[in-house]
Write a structure and sequence with these properties.
The complex is a heterodimer. Chain A is of the alpha+beta class. Helices cover 20% and strands 37% of the residues of chain A. Chain A has one domain: OB fold (Dihydrolipoamide Acetyltransferase, E2P) (Beta Barrel). The chains are: A alpha+beta, B mainly alpha.
């Protein structure tokens, strides 16, 4: 492989990585439409206390939302231990819908049993 | 996390005890991330400082002296970078493998390694002629620009993994 080809590959890599930025995106806050605030109240069906972000599947009357929370270490620090996210627990979340996945939203805050925890 | 969907070996990796620990232990993931960052700061830092010297900065410093100091550190840093990178890969194997930024990142790392090895087998052999107070040959400068471009691309892709 010539030096030219390697150089081309690098430039290609850089361009591709910039271009791909538009394609999907479901992690950073920019992947969610903050112009559209959702307030949902429902029941936790399933939860994950996982890196990079915890989640709950929140059943509301008409559908089940995949609600992205915060990193577990942050949730623990802010007083939202794993045990509070048990299946069957009623919960309310305020957050924004994903730009790409109609089932997914990211929560700014969650309220369980009268206690509100900021997640950002 | 989302459902594990993908080739069997990736699903196997992702559901292994190590992967579960990475996702569920409170501080393991951040610690591994920190190790990865410390490692690549040394690796990419060494590469960038050497490349800048090839491009003509600080010509009073001998190129051989810089290589002698920086290269062993760059190699040693791989002991931090590779295991931590593998752990993070395992934790989200199916997602990573499907992530275009991850593929581009691996391609750039491979290309950067190839570039370095071509440099050392090629133009670096004549370093005694341009060791100090002299311009490096064009081939060395091209290798330096390629290296800078590739390593910046690697970091860019690595960061974009979380956003794609």
């Amino acid at each position: 492989m010539s030096k030219h080809m390697i150089s081309m590959l690098g430039i290609l890599g850089l361009l591709m990585s910039l271009w791909i930025g538009k394609a999907t995106g479901h992690h950073g806050w920019s992947g969610y439409d903050s112009g559209q605030t959702l307030s949902l109240t429902g029941t936790i069906q399933e939860s994950g206390y996982e890196h990079p972000h915890g989640y709950v599947k929140l059943a509301v009357p008409d559908k089940v939302w995949f609600v992205v929370l915060a990193p577990p270490s942050r949730m623990e620090n802010r007083g939202l231990p794993r045990t509070m996210l048990k299946a069957g627990t009623p919960a309310s979340v305020v957050g924004y819908p994903s730009r790409s996945d109609p089932q997914e939203m990211r929560a700014e805050r969650i309220t369980i049993d009268g206690q509100t925890v900021e997640l950002r | 996390m989302h459902q594990s969907v993908g080739p069997a070996w990736l699903v196997w990796l992702e559901t292994s005890a190590v992967a579960v620990a990475m996702r569920q232990w409170l501080w393991l993931y951040p610690i591994v991330e920190i190790v990865h960052i410390v490692g690549f700061v040394v690796l990419v830092g060494a590469a960038v400082m050497f490349d800048l010297r090839l491009l003509g900065l600080s010509r009073h410093l001998p190129v051989r002296g810089m290589a002698w100091h920086l290269l062993p550190w760059a190699r040693t840093s791989l002991l931090l970078v590779i295991p931590s990178g593998l752990l993070m890969f395992i934790a989200h194997a199916t997602e990573m493998a499907a992530n275009p930024a991850f593929r581009v990142k691996l391609a750039c790392i491979a290309a950067a390694g190839l570039n370095a090895s071509l440099f050392h087998r090629g133009v670096f052999q004549s370093v005694s002629r341009w060791d100090q107070e002299a311009a490096a040959p064009a081939a060395a400068k091209i290798a330096a620009i390629v290296s800078l471009t590739l390593w910046i691309s690697v970091i860019t892709c690595g960061r974009l993994l979380a956003y794609l």
